[in-house]
Amino acid sequence: MTQPLLDVRDLAVQFKTLDGLVHAVDGVSFTVAKGEILGVVGESGSGKSVSAMSMLGLIPQPPGRIAAGSVLFEGTDLLRASKRRMRQIRGEQIGMIFQDPMTALNPVMRVGKQIAEAIRTHHRRTSADAALERAVELLRLVGVPQPEARVQQYPHQFSGGMRQRAMIAMAIANDPSLLIADEPTTALDVTIQAQVLDMLRRAQAETGAATIFITHDLGVVAELAERVIVMYAGRIMESGAVRTIFANPRHPYTVGLLKSLPSLKRDSQILTPIPGNPPNLLQPIQGCPFQPRCEIGRDREVCSTTRPPLADVAPGHASACHFSDELGSAAPAAASTGVTS
Q1: Which residues touch 129 (CB under 8 Å, ≥6 apart)?
Q2: Does residue 102 fall inside a structural domain?
Q3: Which SS3 state, helix, strand or coil, does residue 75 take?
Q4: pTM surpassing 0.85?
Q5: Does residue 138 share a domain with residue 283?
Q6: pLDDT per residue as tens digits for the range 232-247
Q7: Are 23 and 234 a contacting pair, CB within 8 Å?
Q8: Label partner for 117 (CA 20 to 30 A): which of 202, 238, 259, 312?
Q9: Full domain range(s) for residue 173
């Protein structure tokens, strides 16, 4: 069997606050194959971004703490690698595209110089002129107009969409084997979002890199990813191929997410929200974290007392639900995203 590029096992991340210990990520396990595009979806606070940031050693410690787990990347456990080794891996073997480029880019440094610096940090023999020429090529690749002039500009002189393209250019500058995109289209309008997604597809094709795409937008997942994991309250609720998850979800939370989407096939304009609120992560959750909001498990004792394992319900399709066999097909909901079974 081919070894995965990335193998995350039982990752647990906690944050110490004045109110107590927040269990932000609780036993997350997944793999990413070479060249694969994996979508990670869930509400705000579900642990999507914290999982990615902790893998790269980017959470502040303290107050953050990686309580358990391992993250194997091409044979190296990132959680136990030295700071020097992590600096080598970040930017060269793993590229990161952040949600807000205005906070990720240096506001007082020219964009071209920032991209060139990312190149020269990992390739010290590259001259400044050669690195700047490469920066121009990268900006052209991601669709920034007049890249020869743009490399001399500052981030505030770029539009939001162009800043995100510059972040993509920087992330792929060293041909990484893994890209992590943390909600890179959240603050963009629909037209610019579509352009950035197209740029991400081109960047992935250019580098052949595996990609982890973190988002709360199921429509984006349907358009971009091949496989998806659904997170809630720091845990994985369901995982599988995008078409399978959208056509036949086997966890009540995934069903709720799909029902809350607008559909071209439904006459009613009223969306169906998920009732209730996410749990308080200051307290350890013994059973299923979705149990208080779940239609099929609300009154069942096992759901509140026993943690459901993430178990296979079909080949390549896993669900963390005690009663996943009771869920019917949600194919009509999937129609709104353009995914078909």
Answers
A1: none
A2: yes
A3: coil
A4: yes
A5: no
A6: 999 999 999 999 998 8
A7: yes
A8: 202
A9: 6-225
Note whether residue 217 is domain-resident: yes
Q: What is the CATH number of the domain that holds 157?
A: 3.40.50.300
Residues 22 and 167 in one domain: yes
Tokens representing 210?
Answer: 């595996």
Residue 266, in any domain of the structure: yes
CB atoms within 10 A of CB 33: 15
**Distance between CA 277 and CA 293 in Å, rounded?**
7
Tokens of 180: 């992590």
Query: Quick one: 202 and 188 in the same domain?
Result: yes
* Residue 50 and residue 176 share a domain: yes
Give the Å distances, CA to CA, from 105 to 162, 197, 247: 12, 20, 39
CA distance 188 to 165: 12
pLDDT class for 134, splitting at 50, 70, 90?
very high
Number of domains forming the structure of the chain: 2
Q: What is the Rg, in whole angstroms, of the alpha carbon atoms belonging to the chain?
A: 21
Q: What is the pLDDT of residues 89-133, one digit of tens each?
A: 988 899 888 877 778 889 999 999 999 999 998 888 889 889 999
Amino acid at 336: S
**What is the side-by-side order of every strand in the sheet holding 20-32?**
20-32, 6-17, 64-73, 76-77
Q: Are residues 208 and 238 in the same domain?
A: no
238 in Cβ contact with 218 (< 8 Å): no
In sequence order, what are the residues at sequence separation of 6 or more whose Cβ sits closer than 8 angstroms to the Cβ of residue 3? Answer: none
φ, ψ dihedrals at 85, nearest 5°: -65, -40
